[in-house]
Design goal:
By secondary structure, this protein is of the alpha+beta class. It is built from 4 helices and 8 strands. The protein has one domain: 2-Layer Sandwich (Alpha-D-Glucose-1,6-Bisphosphate, Chain A, domain 4). Strand 4 and strand 5 form a beta hairpin. Helix 1 packs across helix 2.
């Protein structure tokens, strides 16, 4: 039985064959973010980063059909090399907040989602990355986010334009009005 106040969280973990500093740069350097942000079939043509506590990053993902989606990451806490906490929201091209429904996204997608990214060195050349997303209203929305996040977590610098995959197909089925070597695992948790 589910209560009205129940929320669902998402945890995605990935082990990278890269030192902790390199994985950190993937999250803290705008040029690096544009190399991996977005699921397969999407590019990231722009990232305007203000990587500091209280700062906000504006990042864009673009589909093969030239549909663009902008997100903001507003940083609450940054512990260099170890942990980033931010709130992700949806935005217009200029960074102005916008409700997901105005973008044609499925009902129930929250306007803001708290994220905690942690990096843990396994050894000098291997890093465990864990991304936690908090407060989704139902398991269907968790699955939409999981599909996208697992695609993002699989990026190894390869060509994301090799065709749309599960995440973008799943989003398109869920929102028909929208325009336009992994060793990871993920889990959804209910609170």
């Amino acid at each position: 039985m589910s209560s009205e106040n129940e929320t669902h969280d998402l945890v995605v973990t990935r082990v990278f064959d890269a030192p902790q500093e390199r994985v950190w740069r993937a999250w803290s350097d705008a040029d690096q973010v544009t190399r991996w942000w977005g699921p397969l079939g999407f590019t990231s043509p722009m990232c305007r980063m203000d990587f500091r506590e209280g700062g906000t990053t504006l990042v864009c993902m673009r589909s093969a059909e030239d549909w663009e989606l902008y997100n903001t990451w507003t940083y609450r806490s940054i512990e260099p090399m170890d942990r980033i906490e931010f709130v992700q929201g949806f935005a217009k091209e200029d960074g102005t907040p916008v409700a997901p429904a105005e973008l044609g996204l499925p009902p129930g997608i929250p306007e803001e989602v708290r994220h905690v990214v942690t990096l843990s060195p396994i050894d000098s050349a291997t890093t465990r990355l864990t991304v936690r997303e908090y407060g989704y209203p139902n398991s269907e929305i968790v699955e939409i986010s999981r599909a996208g996040m697992e695609q993002v977590a699989r990026q190894d610098g390869g060509d994301r334009r090799r065709g749309l995959t599960v995440a973008s197909r799943h989003l398109r089925r869920a929102a028909p009005s929208m325009k336009g070597g992994n060793r990871g695992r993920s889990t959804a948790r209910d609170r």
